[in-house]
Hints:
The structure holds two protein chains of two kinds. By secondary structure, chain A is mainly beta. Helices cover 11% and strands 30% of the residues of chain A. Chain B has helices at residues 2-7, 9-15, 68-80, and strands at residues 24-26, 30-31, 41-43, 46-47, 51-53, 89-102, 108-123. Chain B has a three-stranded antiparallel beta sheet, with no helix packed on it. A two-stranded antiparallel ribbon of chain B has the order 1-5.
Amino acid sequence: SPLHPGSLPAVPTLPLLQALQTRAxxxxxxxxxxxxxxxxxxMLNLYRRAADREGRPRRxxxxxxxxxxxxxASSHGGQPWAGRWYMQPLTxxxxxxPEAEHLLRATVVYLPSLPLxxxxxxxxxxxxxxxxxxxxxxSPTARPRRGWAEVxxxxxxxxxxxxxxxxxxxxxxxxxxxxxxxxxxxxxPSRPFLLLYLNDTQAGLAPxxxxxxxxxx
Amino acid sequence: xTGTLAHxxxxxxxxxxxxxxxCSLRPFPVxxxxxxxxxxxxxxxxxxxxxxKGACPHLLRYDYHAPNHAVVQSFVxxxxxxxxxxxxxxxxxxxxISVLMIERNGGILYKEYExxxxxxCTCR
Lengths: 217, 124
């Protein structure tokens, strides 16, 4: 093996390593606690469909874009359960997106139906009213019998030239099925996550030329 | 003189000790686990950029896709002035690589980086 962590040069020479090092843990702004669970599994499945073991994109299986970012929601507010209803406000922060990444499509992925010990939990997403945009129930672009559903939120993120800083949704579920005699253990439905399909116009590695463009004398 | 070059090609190959010394693709596997980055670079586990190394033959074979200039430079080196170096063995085609990584804010990013794996070599 040509490289050992112990013998790493201060600045890796391989272009990919240089670029990745700027994103490495320990670099400024890194928050502890990498993603895990369903979002990670979702992206891993997406990756395996799109690329082989060596990381080469599969021919004919292109995702139609060179960048897909999964954004996790931050939740706020008190107890989401009220009787049979579950209502969780969610906010997706969109600040700090690199300028070279242009939004092509945005979807929110969630589970419309979860099995319970007795009955099912049926879920939907609502767009929270903000400014001139009224609140409304978002309907999925496709209705899978099982598994993930996607709602298209592109129109609410690509508002003309102004950059939207966050997206506020409400995750609403209701316990459906026979009311049991005993008390069902509280269920926490998996939190919907936002997928941003972006076109990175600088899909290379070298950072933008630091020097201003000099004209030939 | 070019005529004589064509005649001595078999000898030239034999003298160079067979194919491996010719300009060709070489592996250079890097494991993100070795770099201690595998807890945030989720996939792939290995990255093999490969590289080109070897001597550019006097007669540039058609499969090198060498530009005409490289043919001329090879002749100049051979017949006119040896100070002019022979063409260099460099990558010709590349392929992208897809990387899945965890971002600082806990998001997960799929990104394709262009021209990251050398697929073939040329002399130029």
